[in-house]
Amino acid sequence: MESLEKLTNECIDLLQSNQLLKPLIKAELLKETLSKVSLAKEVKDKAIENYTKNIGLKDKESYKNWLEINKINKEEFENLTVKNIKLKKYCNQNFSHQVEARFLTRKHELDIVVYSLIRVSDFFMARELYLRLLEKEAEFGEIATKYSTGIENKSRGIIGPGPINKAHPKLAEVLRNSNPGDIQTPLQIEDNYIIARLETLEIAQLDNFMKDKMEEELFNHWLEEEAKEISQGLIKKIKNNALTSDLQ
């Protein structure tokens, strides 16, 4: 990229030593990529109009002041307003054909779960609490608040909603094979005994929202790999230059 060619060996070395080289490359690569995406004039004008309204710019004077305060020019402002629209268009044009395969690979990680949890370190206490729940001697939330040793005691035992892969693999497997409302027998996970109850499990679907998410993930992976390759090339270049200088 032309912008990176302006960097001296000293600049590259300094950026790399502070772990700033790859972030800079990613930012420049993103800027260059989006600069090649064209939008219809009406789409661009509408995006600018919506953005100015959202940040409270009602007239030319407030617009001018905003540019001065944020130290950007008109072109940079317009690029900012259409950035997400351009990114979505680029992702759709270049990665839509990989979406289904990506989704099938990630599907089990994308399911959204809500569950209740009680965590104690003593098996006999876990067994007693489990039996009390089965006999309906107390509410799950009451027991979780009083006895659970994790942060779930602050939320009456409720965990989620969140991706099911965030749960421990053993717990995730139990939840996947549960029916909502079922209280599971104490499950040992490391040094704790877990009593869990599935509340809801939302199975991921390849709808429009998920397609956009998969396309963006694929783009981010591409961006990361491209930036990695470019940074390695720059680092190799300055090492070769240093070696050449030593030999002269």
Can you put this structure into words, describing what you see?
The protein contains eleven helices and four strands, in the order αααααααβααβαββα. The chain has a four-stranded antiparallel β-sheet. 62% of the residues lie in helices and 12% in strands. By secondary structure, the chain is an alpha+beta fold. The model has no long low-confidence stretch (mean pLDDT 92). Strand 3 and strand 4 form a beta hairpin.
What features would you highlight for this structure?
248 residues; alpha+beta; 11 helices; 4 strands
Low-confidence stretches: none
Strands, count: 4
Strand composition percent: 5-15%
Main sheet specs: 4 strands, antiparallel
How many helical elements? 11
Strand order of the largest sheet: 2-1-4-3
- Helix and strand succession? HHHHHHHEHHEHEEH
Q: How far do the termini sit from each other?
A: 29 Å
Principal-axes shape call: elongated
Average predicted confidence as pLDDT: 92
Structural class: alpha+beta
Q: What is the C-alpha radius of gyration, as a whole number of Å?
A: 27 Å
Helix content: 55-70%
Q: In terms of topology, how is this protein built?
A:
Blueprint: H1 2-5, H2 9-17, H3 21-35, H4 41-54, H5 60-70, H6 74-95, H7 99-110, E1 112-120, H8 123-134, H9 140-147, E2 158-163, H10 169-176, E3 187-189, E4 192-202, H11 208-247
Antiparallel strand pairs: 1-2, 1-4, 3-4
Helix pairs in contact: 3-11, 4-6, 6-11, 7-11
Question: Could you provide a short overview of the structure?
Answer:
This protein is an alpha+beta fold and 248 residues long. 62% of the residues lie in helices and 12% in strands. Helix 3 crosses helix 11 (208-247) and helix 7 packs across helix 11.
